Amino acid sequence: MRIDNRNNDQMRLVKITPNFLKNPHGSALVEFGDTKVICTAMLEEKTPSFLRGTNQGWLTAEYDMIPGSTIVRTSRDVSKGKISGRSQEIQRLIGRCMRSVTDMSVLGERTIWLDCDVIQADGGTRTASISGAFVALVLALDRFKEELKLEQLPVKNYLGAVSVGIVDNIPILDLCYEEDSRAMVDMNIVMTSAGEIVEIQGTGEARPFTKTELLSLIQLSEKGVKTIFAAQKEALANVLEF
Amino acid sequence: MRIDNRNNDQMRLVKITPNFLKNPHGSALVEFGDTKVICTAMLEEKTPSFLRGTNQGWLTAEYDMIPGSTIVRTSRDVSKGKISGRSQEIQRLIGRCMRSVTDMSVLGERTIWLDCDVIQADGGTRTASISGAFVALVLALDRFKEELKLEQLPVKNYLGAVSVGIVDNIPILDLCYEEDSRAMVDMNIVMTSAGEIVEIQGTGEARPFTKTELLSLIQLSEKGVKTIFAAQKEALANVLEF
Amino acid sequence: MRIDNRNNDQMRLVKITPNFLKNPHGSALVEFGDTKVICTAMLEEKTPSFLRGTNQGWLTAEYDMIPGSTIVRTSRDVSKGKISGRSQEIQRLIGRCMRSVTDMSVLGERTIWLDCDVIQADGGTRTASISGAFVALVLALDRFKEELKLEQLPVKNYLGAVSVGIVDNIPILDLCYEEDSRAMVDMNIVMTSAGEIVEIQGTGEARPFTKTELLSLIQLSEKGVKTIFAAQKEALANVLEF
Amino acid sequence: MRIDNRNNDQMRLVKITPNFLKNPHGSALVEFGDTKVICTAMLEEKTPSFLRGTNQGWLTAEYDMIPGSTIVRTSRDVSKGKISGRSQEIQRLIGRCMRSVTDMSVLGERTIWLDCDVIQADGGTRTASISGAFVALVLALDRFKEELKLEQLPVKNYLGAVSVGIVDNIPILDLCYEEDSRAMVDMNIVMTSAGEIVEIQGTGEARPFTKTELLSLIQLSEKGVKTIFAAQKEALANVLEF
Amino acid sequence: MRIDNRNNDQMRLVKITPNFLKNPHGSALVEFGDTKVICTAMLEEKTPSFLRGTNQGWLTAEYDMIPGSTIVRTSRDVSKGKISGRSQEIQRLIGRCMRSVTDMSVLGERTIWLDCDVIQADGGTRTASISGAFVALVLALDRFKEELKLEQLPVKNYLGAVSVGIVDNIPILDLCYEEDSRAMVDMNIVMTSAGEIVEIQGTGEARPFTKTELLSLIQLSEKGVKTIFAAQKEALANVLEF
Amino acid sequence: MRIDNRNNDQMRLVKITPNFLKNPHGSALVEFGDTKVICTAMLEEKTPSFLRGTNQGWLTAEYDMIPGSTIVRTSRDVSKGKISGRSQEIQRLIGRCMRSVTDMSVLGERTIWLDCDVIQADGGTRTASISGAFVALVLALDRFKEELKLEQLPVKNYLGAVSVGIVDNIPILDLCYEEDSRAMVDMNIVMTSAGEIVEIQGTGEARPFTKTELLSLIQLSEKGVKTIFAAQKEALANVLEF
What is the ipTM of this complex? Predict the structure, then answer.
């Protein structure tokens, strides 16, 4: 039995509150059980220098945790003068995934900034971030639909992410912190609502894993993302029409 | 008439939600109208090196804004590799005020970290931070009451802060962002519930000010902090008994 | 009796040597007793990016202490890779005060850099810096009077600053280091020769203070700045004609 | 036909020169075609602070490219004052993989530093680094066999890594730079000679990918790592006896 | 007798392999005995800002050591966030020397980047770097001869550097690491094939030195650079015709 | 004729004011004509980690220029987050020279910090710094003579430094800024009063130089340092008895 009485193939409660903050162009509070992340999307009227003059848009992401989000205080990156390796890895992942499902050519020379700030951490902050950032992104795109003369929003599918892993030799879905900290194998999968994989990252923390185990982890993921797509659909009702 | 229909001597709605997060030893969400700050307090089992061997405790504060808290995205300090002058000034102020009302000698060689993370900014983030950090601090102290063998909590008074300013030559209380950005004179006052001043910082942004104006600003502050003490009292009911 | 036999409302010897260095456009050595600060003013032919194209000038200040200025060696900020919180706070204060008394619109797209380098510290370095920087600033403005086609210098009043504080429960003027280090309340006030306040910063270091105490500290300041205006007037004879 | 006339399931020439440098405890030059990486392993007589007192060893990796390794000069990380996100991601990956196949408990309180310095880059630098670092690591362990009183070296299998990807909709093995830069899907797989997966990282750069495609990429990898194990076996003849 | 059986006025084996890497415009591996440095030269189509609009070229150098180049691992500069004083001194020296023998006016607004990366260190890395960088530079210039419409390469002489020193009170040529670490006097001299001095840097590490000793050290240098000019001539056969 | 009417072998007025500041253990203001440097020496009760437990002392130097010391404002190193290459080179030079003439074994586990802060620059700041730092150092040593139980001060000779150079093909002594900026050859020599060389650094800025020219530059130096030794002797009368 899992620590919170879930079945091995069961997600925690997934909740997405759209328009959580008033200032950003798009925002959402995403909750995977006790994990809570504020996701915001803001448009800036310029692109990075490598895109100047191409009439192409860009999308970039940043990820951080507030110090009080964890049981032991997480010290701020700025106090060490540089972003942590872990944060950098996660924000590169978020940006890459979001770019892969957005047609940035319709944005003109603009950048969308996606910010994921974890306010409470209980495992799965990166997958919650991706799932919530998608909602913030769509809300921001919707806000500029008219100004950018978009007939339809430049995203084709929902995008969700879940963590899976092998704990006590058993594959399970959506690990909470306690499970994550003793997982033998740890994997994050990002998928579209068309059933395709956008990113897969699997690590044998305590031991390597077989191809058979890999396949059962993927199956769990496929189940998990459905819960996320449902929560996104509800949060984006009247905004995204598929 | 003020932009949000308040009287010149009227605070915005002040709301303090105690125990807002589950991981820190103490926490509160403080709201001054649309300004929202997450305040957390966490005890660490060591002190800065200048206190080692003295059996004295310490208290330090950090302040930050998430990028989506403002109308124009606030870029993260870490992306510039160093904390901004403004953030540094504010967190030094918060720490100084909290230390001034806490008897740190009873803590033993421990540090209390206070973190104020602004999630939505509409003026007065530093005064909201101080007012909310006080609640988080008391909640954390209460949690360790037994372990630290405290007969009573080592704080003697409530501590609140408000901003006042002169806009269109009229002294007003608790400026929202729109008012703050065109204030001629800008002042922050931190007071105890015993009616004494802990810190006063006043700046003639667009013009200097007279001693008479200074006095009327202080009078407005004295009115404003009462609202804050009431909200703190409610948030700390059963914890602080005065 | 005070450590240097002064009365409670008595300034130390204030001395301002104009044109102390040959290279800057304006310079002064300011002395408040044993506290000695070299203040320089230099014009640069460009403004920060937020002012480009506005035909507006700007004024910015930097503050530092040489390592040998203090009893215990002060390590250089650069050895830690970043400016200290204290230095940053002080230089922001100096810049803010100088901008408040200068009409920067007549400068065109130019920046005036004010540098305050403490070579000997004995309390009151920030107030000495402000008082000396004003002289350096006026000397630099005077040097460019013709080139900038100014009929009169773009400052309307003298600007001086003093520290006051409560030591052993007694309000005193112009604290030396020994007094400053055991002050219960510490305050810096910046005033114009028109008798108005530009900045007030008061902190209850060891205890809060009452409104009555605040008023007596302000009265001491009003007395102290007169000494400074006199020294500035002498240093700027033939330059500033009021 | 591929740019260098290889079959889709064909590795470039893999060459590993052991003991390439005289100073490190272990070293190797690894070549995957034109990609050349110097890998070194050095033992240090202490561990990171989180392991002090545990009698446990540690293993950490760093990755860098010399500026002249690429067609357009790669500027040094230090000139920006911080390690790039890409380098950080790669060195975290290398360290994780090496730790997963090494029994660090036999090292005592020692750290093994693995350094991978790319001197010529033509795609696959991270997989070449892992494959070469394994050889450097084993050589260093062998050198200390006696001193550490090891009956056998604390590694159980060979460890190799390859890149695979989908270019022009066709899955191919071991991408060179030209192929990598236009890959639709990009994947790195790290495997042991026991046929198990240590790490899998797949990204849909230009489009998502199906589970079927994922499986065919894994199959290519399984073929590719055999070539690497053969080269490692040759480089470690007389050192590793399996 | 010296540790490697050389005479006091004898260089170690000097070997320069031109075109060592395929990506840079010019490259060389230089070896002074066991000291090995990869030198590369790359042209960039812009100059530093202080030269914009002058139609003048520029030349700059960077120097680094890979961590495994030394007996005790050299930690990377980037891990401390800044370049070491030693590296900075050396790369300033390399750049200065190369600029002194190159007519940069014929380059137009271009910068040549010279990178010297030590892969194995056994004393004399800075003099080996200068000697090898000269070859990389000439190869890069030769590659752009046509594009830059140069009738002849803009260098007039060969440029070589050697270290000399006083060990056990005896002046010797080309110190290896073991000798360098116990040298009383340490000197580096950079000379042209016309017999003139470009740079001389001598330090009394353990004791000062006399003018007579200085002269005998210079004589040794004059002998040593001849070996280097010969190796450069061979490496640049068919490229530099003098 | 030189710009300030000096002969080619003539120093500017050299003036050393001992005990210039009240806080450091030793201090001096050194002037070479219009070049003015504040030199201070301060003892710290610990050594760098590489000397712990050896009962050996250490000596280290830092060099900086205040922004107003130059005609065009010199921006502070800290604003770029790192020390400039030039400053680093100079402070390494100062430290090396001072260590070479001081018997650090008598200091016990203590560090002497030497700080050279240029307040006015007109060429020769590094040689003035060395010459002044020597005086500050001796004054600090003298102050601790009793505490350290020194029978005599642990320095054996005076130490002075001068710049020489070739301007318009003529060797001259002690270059001012105007001369320095158009020197073909630039050299700094540090010598003891016993007539020996501690450091020589010569650079062919605009052209290489011959051995004959080198010798005539050394001769000029030998003349110049005599003026410095005389000024040091005067400043240290009653302190250093040789």
Answer: 0.95
